[in-house]
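Hi C.,

You asked whether I'd gotten around to modeling the 258-residue construct. I have! Everything is below, sequence then structure, no commentary in between.
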Amino acid sequence: MQNNYKGSVFFDLDGTLFNNQTKIDKDVADAVHQLRANNYLPVISTGRSFDEAQDAAKPTGIDTLVTLNGAYVKHQDDVIYKSVMDTDVVSQVIDKVDELGDFVGLHSATDTRLIKSSDTATSFYNMVNIKMPKIDSDFHLNHEIPMMIIISEDDIDRYSEFFDSLNFYKTGKYSIDVVNKNVTKMTGIQHILKTLDLEDKPTYAFGDGANDIPMLSSVDHGIAMGNGSDQAKEAAEYTTSENINGGIANGLKHYGLI
């Protein structure tokens, strides 16, 4: 696919493009529009679902999205890649979640369901400003599941029996994202680069958390947010200012992209 882009820039959402109220500030949207005007392709790269990310991206005009931590990738109207978890494995994780007293949400490409309701789950979805999903205990039996989200205060080690087949990312105090073992944000990015003929052009990525580390360490220029984790900063080439303190614009200016 021919293009005239000088390069591509990948943006996480939470703690990165988003402010602390899960919105995109005008100065951030303006910086992204200027980036595109300068012939760089802006791409969202997030653990959120496609519908959540697409809606959030509207102020920026971004129409290329790596979602569900690389498990569902779309450019404009074209699905470039999807990775679906094995139904039996999903059932086994659900059983383990129930045994441990945690809670789990199931993501299809465009929808989310909870296995059961709880005050903990309600509090979590309110905290991240996402509408509470409907309950459907059989959702995984009737839909392809690219990603699960476990709601738990504990670390990922309690799910170590699944580490050979699945990737677990602690993405917040109460959230663990689960995808197939070969899936990361960076693998999703690689599908974008190949499909859009951008493999030989410079790549940049902005992120703040554990699930951003594969892309921050693998693109040509990884940029950690000032509010990011120590691990994200260690994986990045450069650390910009905080997400609510001009971090996106400052990072883009540092590399002469705007």
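If it helps when you're writing up: The longest helix spans residues 87-100.

Thanks,
B.
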